Amino acid sequence: MGSGGSKSLMDPSILIDAATTQQALLGAGGYLLGQMMNGQGVGGANGVISTDLDSIVQIQKRKLQRRQANRKSAQLSRARKKAHLEELKEENLR
Predict the structure, then answer these.
(1) Confidence band (pLDDT; 50, 70, 90) for 34?
(2) In whole angstroms, what is the distance from residue 60 CA to residue 53 CA?
(3) Is the separation of the CB atoms in 13 and 7 below 8 Å?
(4) Distance between CA atoms of 54 and 33, rounded to whole angstroms?
(5) pTM
(6) Would you give the distance in Å from CA 20 to the centre of its chain?
(7) What would you report as the CA-atom Rg of the chain, rounded to the nearest whole angstrom?
(8) How many degrees, rounded to 5, is the angle at CA 8 between CA 3 and CA 9?
C-alpha cells in the first residue's frame, strides 16, 4: 500500500462514507431510490412492483400531494378549534 493518499476499498472510512451516503438518501425520503440502487423491487400486494424512474416520481408526487392536503386539513382544523374556543370564552363571559 502506498502513502499517496488513496484509500483502499476495505478502508473503514470508505465503508462509513458509503453507509452515511445511503442513510442520507434513505432518510431524505429516497426509500424507493435506495431499493432501486440495491437492485431490489418494492414489495406490493402482488409481489414485486416495477421500480422504474417514472413510478418513483409518481409515488413521490402523490406523497407530496397527501402531505400538502394533510397540512391544509390540519390548519383548517386548528382554525375551527380556535374559533370554537373563542366562542365558548365569549359565552362564558356573559
Answers:
(1) low
(2) 11
(3) yes
(4) 11
(5) 0.43
(6) 16
(7) 24
(8) 170
28: nearest Cα among 3, 63, 78, 4: 63
CA–CA separation, 13 and 60 (whole Å): 32
How far, in Å, CA of 89 to CA of 94, rounded?
9
Domain assignments of the chain as residue spans, ordered by start = 9-50, 52-94
Across the strands, what pairs with 48? 43
Looking at the chain, how many residues does it have?
Answer: 94
Q: pLDDT at position 69, please?
A: 97
Per-residue model confidence (pLDDT) at position 68: 97
Per residue in 56-93, pLDDT tens? 889 999 999 999 999 999 999 999 999 999 999 999 98
